[in-house]
């Protein structure tokens, strides 16, 4: 488990972008406090593994046939 860093809200506000860059680079979690009490936790996003698309589509019937049956192009 990665170590958490505690940061007062005022300092977090002043250094927000730098804190986000550090979280992204190190994976470290930052606990933001107000008056000494934890109010938020900033941490790296957990990337979900992309699901393979193979076998996620079921083909029923003829995919090249017209949807509404035969149609007349001259109408």
Question: What characteristics describe this protein?
Answer:
3 strands, 1 helix, three-stranded mixed sheet, alpha+beta, about 80 residues, single chain
Short characterization:
It contains one helix and three strands. It is of the alpha+beta class and 75 residues long. The chain is elongated.
Describe this structure in words.
By secondary structure, the protein is α+β, with helices and mostly antiparallel strands. It has a domain at 1-31. The chain is built from one helix and three strands; from the N terminus they run βαββ. It has one helix at 9-26; strands at 4-8, 29-34, 37-42. Strands 1-2-3 form a three-stranded mixed β-sheet, with helices on one face. β1 (4-8), α1 and β2 (29-34) form a beta-alpha-beta unit. It is elongated and about 75 Å long. It starts with a strand and ends in a 33-residue tail after the last strand. The model has no long low-confidence stretch (mean pLDDT 85).
Topology:
Layout lengths: L3 E5 H18 L2 E6 L2 E6 L33
Instruction: Report how far apart the termini are.
Output: 69 Å
* Helical coverage, percent range: 10-25%
Tell me the strand percentage band: 15-25%
- Which structural class matches the secondary elements? alpha+beta
* Biggest pleated-sheet summary: 3 strands, mixed
């Amino acid at each position: 488990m990665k170590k958490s860093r505690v940061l007062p809200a005022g300092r977090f506000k002043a250094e927000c972008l730098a804190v986000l860059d550090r979280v992204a680079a190190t994976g470290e979690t930052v606990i933001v406090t107000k008056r000494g009490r934890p109010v938020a936790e900033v941490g790296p996003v957990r990337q979900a593994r992309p699901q393979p698309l193979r076998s996620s589509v079921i083909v029923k019937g003829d995919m090249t046939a017209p949807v509404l049956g035969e149609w007349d192009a001259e109408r």
